[in-house]
Amino acid sequence: MTLSVLAVDDSRTMRDMIKIALTQAGFTSTLAEDGEHGLEVLDDMTPPDVIITDINMPKLDGFGFIDAVRAQEKHRGIPILVLTTESADTLKARARKAGATGWIVKPFDPAKLVRALKMVAG
Amino acid sequence: MSEIENMKDAGNVELLSFRISDQEYSVDIMSVREIRSWTKATPLPHSPTYVKGVINLRGTVLPIIDLSARLGLEKEEQSERDVIIVVQLMGQTVGLLVDAVIDILAVPQSEMQSPPEIGNDAGPSFVSALTLVDGRMIRLLDLQAVMPSIEAQVA
Amino acid sequence: MTSPDPMAEIKASFFIECEELLESLQDGLEALSNGETDSETINVVFRAVHSIKGGAGAFGLDQLVEFAHTYETVLDSIRSGDLAVDPNIMRVLFQAGDILSDLVRLSRDGEVIEPSLTQDTYKALQDIVGETSDGDSGADDDIDFQPMGLALDLDFADDAKSVFTVMFKPSSELFESGNEPLHLLKALSELGEATVACDTKELPVVDELDFETGYLQWTIRLETEADKSAIEEVFEFVDGLCQLTITEGEDLPATDLPEIEEDETPEPQAVTPVAAVATSAQQATAPAPGQPTAAPRATVRVDLERVDRLVNLVGELVINQAMLSQSISAIGVQPSSEVSSGLEEFMRLTRDIQDSVMMIRAQPIKSLFQRMSRIVREASADVGKTVRFVTEGEGTEIDKTVIERLSDPLTHMIRNAVDHGLEKGDARRANGKPEEGIVKLSAAHRSGRVVIEISDDGAGINRPRVHQIAVEKGLIAPDTQLTDTEIDNLLFAPGFSTASEISNLSGRGVGMDVVRSAIQALGGRISISSTPGAGTSFTISLPLTLAVLDGMVVHVAGEAMVVPLNSIAETLALTTKELEQLGSNKFLVRIRDQFVPLLDLGVELGYRAPLDRYEGAVVLLISQEDGSRAALVVDSIQDQRQVVIKGLEESYGRVPGVAAATILGDGQIALILDPTDIITNASGRVSSDDTLFDLAG
């Protein structure tokens, strides 16, 4: 089984790591470097199975990005995982409020990332 | 390290032999990059007499060593028939100016002899081994000794 | 061939990213200290530290993580408005930035980080947060940040299988959040042997069916080696969005789950739960390794070697094009013909390509200036002087290699400026100057070169003292009469040091002579000027790139050679009245009542004997940045052109008087001369007993 994943993070290192983790799991990855870019990329691609997004980003942050994605009819159902360094308690409420499906605590364990993706997208 | 030690296990050594004045020299063919006809070299100021200058080798600057001058042999006038053998040793590439290329020889390793010690030879010996082919004595050039030393020239 | 370790590559790229982040951190801090306390500025600073922490955590760089975390905590307090920036806090922030960059560097090089490095700053940061931390929770939220290695830790400790019974009843909110029970069940079944039973008794008749509402509930028997927490992890995202019980053992509790207090009307804009499944089916193709992914905007990272290869190829193109135009003009093609105009267009394009390729190697000098800003902070703290560091033109672009190789010489000069250039505070006050000294670093493009200026508003060069030291060190005879410029230039003499007391900044084993050779090695020149009481300034002039040069092609003793255009003040044909003889074989050229030594290039290069007479000879008047001049005799001048620089040192070694080589239109190699070297060599030879100018090197 393969998943197509859009990953949005302003840190190149984080993007690289996500890409490696996804590639090793046999998933395809598309990368974007901030919320605005994420929306552009999303517009140009076959809707991905899952979106992973950072919260703290220039131009358009993760919350704004999720809002914008959820506002589009064709992207409304895509599961979105937020990447964050915050601890679970504050995070859960904020991520839920923002419309995220789940969350990954940075720095992430690749195996856990893959498990999380499977949990939200099969 | 001499050429012989390099080739200890190789069985046959392939040599490119060439003529300087009336002597026959050779280099290991593995160190030869190409052979070119003579083109005018741009002289370098304040360089040793055996450095003919530099030529354009496909966009890189190639220093030319006049082997007859380097070996202290008599040399007739520069002629159009002269040949440049481009050799590479430890990353350094130079052109060796010789009178003519003679042959490519396969010489059994066992037939390479160390040159005998001759008297009190002051200068560096540029010959690392000798061998006989069809009755001709072929001198194996010690490339390391022939190369101009870059370090020595950096002030 | 083994493929390179991807982790090592990511780690390398992390450290490159760190450089960029540290640069934006510096920028942000500068902006903050200039009173720009808007939220975006603070955010930039925060993000930089935050991203470094995030990446560092992934590689298990614990000390870096720990420090970044404390730093971030302070920045977070500023961001949330709990903490106002004052000069003292600003100072700590700068200092923490410096330490952070040290930690990054040490981590990159795999060196041991001594706790003493971070200790003071660490404490200073903690003190700041301590002041505001009462009742503050925001900053402490992620204090439990646990660095976690990227390596996958598989826990095989417990092989024994156990049986769990999971009951799961999703609520409507679960669907709205984008979660899908089927995926969760599948993830659960990957933990072991799962038997899933679906209880549909609440399911309404089909025409009332609404997927978003939780009518379904599942009971799963799971035989697994995993423990309970692994099962809980599967349901982590839906915690609170479903009813869930996980019990160990076979025995099923009562089949009915407690009722959910659920308002039965789901939100009308609810998502379609099949969307994700559908798209995943469409895309169910195996990913090829290295499948293209959308590249981040605006930049690509390219191996420098590839760029250099391109630079070389374009250099070849330029040479080839020159050779082509030469042969075309040789066969006598009309200038108005189509071939000629086509060739002109070709030349223009070649130039454009060359310029563009050179631009790839260029980058703003800013990173270097930022490093110097730190040097000023450290040096001024070391010697107890208050110094304001002013920069100008930090957007000036210059070749990457040049930037890298300027770092050491500039560091030395900046330290010098702080240490020796500026007076102590009380001395400045006594001279009616503000106590705060100024060190200024500027960069600008000026007529095809980059000019960098390092100046201070200190006391200026103490010329009598310099003269005295030069005498003491045997550099000049005690009775030597020197102009101010000549005295100033003594600073560049090998082994010269003006520090009468060795401070902890100087005495690091480098003198201005080393600085000068470093600049010269880059094809640059350095000059000095000083005004007593008002300060000293050093001017470095560098080529824009190391690859091309504007030169004048001249002929000497039958050889074509190139003289860098920027060293030539003017060209002239000598007349009798300009030529003066000095002694038996020395000549001077009189230019506007100044006497300039005449040097015959053919003789200087050892190509030929001196000419019998120099009347009518063509000379290039060379003007050096240090003010010394000479007239170089050539046989003829051919033209001016841009030439591609080919290194000579790599293939042969250094040749006195020669800077490099190039290939001319006829395919021949021409030497690019180094007029300064020729002049200093000649001066050294002419006045061999006067070692003053014998600074060649």
Global structural class of chain B? mainly beta
Shape of chain B: globular
Question: How many separate structural domains of chain C?
Answer: 5
Separation, N- and C-terminal Cα atoms of chain B: 27 Å
Q: Layout of SSEs?
A:
The complex is a heterotrimer of chains A (122), B (155) and C (697).
Chain A: E1 4-8, H1 12-24, E2 28-32, H2 35-44, E3 50-54, H3 62-70, E4 80-84, H4 88-98, E5 102-105, H5 110-121
Parallel strand pairs in A: 1-2, 1-3, 3-4, 4-5
Helix pairs in contact in A: 1-5, 2-3
Chain B: H1 3-6, E1 12-20, E2 23-28, E3 32-37, E4 51-57, E5 60-66, H2 67-70, E6 83-89, E7 92-98, E8 100-108, E9 127-133, E10 136-141, H3 143-146, H4 150-153
Parallel strand pairs in B: 2-10, 5-7
Antiparallel strand pairs in B: 1-2, 1-8, 3-6, 4-5, 6-7, 9-10
Chain C: H1 6-33, H2 39-58, H3 62-79, H4 87-108, H5 115-132, E1 162-170, H6 172-176, H7 181-189, E2 192-199, E3 217-224, H8 228-234, E4 242-248, H9 275-282, H10 304-330, H11 338-361, E5 362-364, H12 366-383, E6 387-392, E7 397-399, H13 400-421, H14 425-430, E8 437-446, E9 449-456, H15 463-472, H16 484-489, H17 512-521, E10 525-531, E11 535-543, E12 548-556, E13 559-564, E14 568-573, E15 579-582, E16 586-591, E17 594-600, H18 601-604, E18 618-623, E19 629-634, E20 636-644, E21 658-663, E22 669-673, H19 675-686
Descriptive account of the structure:
- The complex is a heterotrimer of chains A (122), B (155) and C (697).
- Chain A has 122 residues and is an alpha/beta fold.
- In chain A, 45% of the residues lie in helices and 20% in strands.
- Chain A has a 5-stranded parallel sheet, sandwiched between helices.
- Residues 1-9 and 151-155 of chain B have low confidence and may be disordered.
- In chain B, the strands form 2 sheets. Chain B has a 5-stranded mixed sheet with strand order 8-1-2-10-9, with no helix packed on it. A 5-stranded mixed sheet of chain B has the order 3-6-7-5-4.
- Chain B is mainly beta.
- The longest helix of chain B has 4 residues, at 3-6.
- Chain B is globular, with a radius of gyration of 15 Å.
- In chain B, 10% of the residues lie in helices and 46% in strands.
- Chain C is α+β, with helices and mostly antiparallel strands.
- Chain C has 5 domains: 6-134, HPT domain (Four Helix Bundle (Hemerythrin (Met), subunit A)), CATH 1.20.120.160; 162-255, 2-Layer Sandwich (Alpha-Beta Plaits), CATH 3.30.70; 304-362; 365-543, Heat Shock Protein 90; 548-693, OB fold (Dihydrolipoamide Acetyltransferase, E2P).
- Chain C is 39% helix and 21% strand.
- Chain C contains 19 helices and 22 strands.
- A 6-stranded mixed sheet of chain C has the order 14-18-19-17-16-15.
- The longest helix of chain C is centred in the N-terminal third of the chain and has 28 residues, at 6-33.
- Chain C is elongated and about 120 Å long.
- Mean pLDDT of chain C is 77; it is low at 132-158, 253-297, 499-509 and 686-697.
- At the B-C interface, strand 4, strand 5, strand 7 and helix 4 of B face helix 10, strand 21 and strand 22 of C.
